[in-house]
Amino acid sequence: MNLASDLASRSHCVKRQVGAVLTKDTRIISIGYNGPPAGTHNCDEEWPETGCPRDSRNSCSLALHAEENAILYAVKNGAQIQGSTLYTTLSPCIACARLILTSGIKHVYFKDSYAAYKGLASDEGVDFLNKFGVRCEYLPR
Ligand SMILES: [Zn+2]
Ligand SMILES: [Zn+2]
After folding, report:
1. 102-119 per-position pLDDT tens digit
2. Which of 12, 42, 43, 113 has the most CB atoms at less than 10 Å from its CB?
């Protein structure tokens, strides 16, 4: 989780920096932080005053989430995601939760709550994962 926090600080996102680390058998197989696809936009440099274009949930409309980037990087490099464990500084949103379940990740640790950050009633991503057999739990540090 310390590494995930370090990675978060590399994010160019104006609003919220998130980092994720994917591990298997105690080894790191992939890492990621939130941001638009490489070589497209650096939100903090392009829109330092206004922030980047927002989607309906007031999230960056250009960025991949840290979890998405970690999973895609693993796929690109042929790492075996099945049975892996994900550490993320912010609990997964529902879209990432669907991706996490489908990719075969079995365990998720998160530091901060996405619902608390967004002012949502519940952490639907966490609930979704726990309901369908991916252990998703709070790890403060
Ligand atoms: Zn952005
Ligand atoms: Zn997400």
Report:
1. 999 999 999 999 999 889
2. 43
